Amino acid sequence: MGVIGHHHELEIPGTYIFDGQAAMKGYALNKMCYSFNSAENRAEFLRDEDAYCRKFGLNEQQCKAIRDRNVLAMIHAGGCIYYLAKFSGMLGLSVQDVGAQQRGVSVDSFKKMIKEQGE
To answer: Which of 34, 41, 43, 101 has the most CB atoms less than 10 A away?
Structure first.
């Protein structure tokens, strides 16, 4: 059992807990992803991704995750999945793309697994 604040949480293997510490670590990344609500900001990002990341003060781990389009790495860098969905959608990544990244499998393998679980 891990302790988060004053609450005890059951540890679930492979699960990343987004808590206050993760929120603080990912503040810049999440703030940047929130900015993608604006079409103007999305266009600015796509024109010069590195400059846009610097504008929001992302650290190297976060910048690498952005460059690699690695949503799981963004989560581990403090990204909140709700804000990261804005980034993923802007790049045309589907829920299946993100799910496959989180599982460490190909998109086709992920789709097959989901289909088999539904049968």
So the answer is: 101
